[in-house]
Fold:
Amino acid sequence: MHTQRDEATSTEQQVRETTRRFILSSIQVTRLDDDANLFESGIVNSLFAVQLMTFIEKTFAIEVGMDDLDVENFKSVNATTGFVLRKTGALG
Amino acid sequence: MEFHRIGVVGAGNIGIGVVTDLVLHGLCTVVVDVSDEILQRAQAAVLNNVRCVPLLSKTLPRITRDEALHRMVLTTKLQDVASCDFVIENVTEDWNIKQRLYEELDRVSPPDVCFGANTSCISITQIGGATRRSAQVIGVHLMNPVHLKPTVEVIRGFHTSERTLDTLLQLFAVLHKEAIVVNDLPGFVSNRISHVFMNEAAFVLQDNVATAEQIDMIFKQCFGHKMGPLETADLIGLDTVVRSLDVLYESFKDPKYRCCPLLRKLVHAGHLGRKTAKGFHAYPEG
Structure:
């Protein structure tokens, strides 16, 4: 029997995997720590935040508002996953 | 000098960046290109740039979508720049196109207006010669993404006057941009050097010395460059890079500027870099 918690975990895994796959397809690394700060580490330049935001809006059908336009929301796989879950109401 | 309205001729990649920068800093623009479709696409891109400013910069002004729209007049008629205080030209890097454009621009613009020629490689002196106001033509090599770059390579043509340079510097003061003023020869400083790098990187890839990823990583991780030469070529657009190399080759007649066959082949295949999602590297669509 599926519980609400199982579903939430499954959604989180899907979002995380989709986000990770997009990032890996866009940058020149083969492995990526989910907590690695993409911008501070120099893996990508700040323009990538726009690409990632656009991808997330299209893929998860969410609208990124003015208040959400903070690079902190997109700085890593985990940060992006958390942001998507908050916006879709799947978290909390 | 007070600037009320700036003409932006050519609404491609760089033109979009120029309009973004101008509207962010409160300047009204008259944006000219050859079709409504191109202009609509450019307007959408400017609005997206304006929207994304908080993500990319802590210091650039924040403006609303309506404010940005209010500061853009889109037109396919070049004579509409007649109301502008300054014109920035960003059309395709093709001398025949630029020559015809400048002859027409000269006819429709008030005599005291200066032209900023945004060219990758074509001589500013040559461009000035297509007008009857060569003292008022100056090179402004604005680079992508224009609104995020604080410094601009500015090129003084043979006849460019101090007054024209001063007018441009006043416009740059509004945009919070610094100028590095250099003299005129095709490719100036930036592209005369960078295109040799990009072209040779393509030869290294063609000769199977390293992968595209390895070439760029060596520049980033060993030299500390922000981007590798092939990534940079993809960002500029491989068609533009080829056109610039051809201009350099024609201008200097020096074989070091001969275009790498792989680079030209990618352009023929429609792999133009980021704008087509395929170049030396692959990029997400859309």
Observations:
- The two ends of chain A are 22 Å apart (CA to CA).
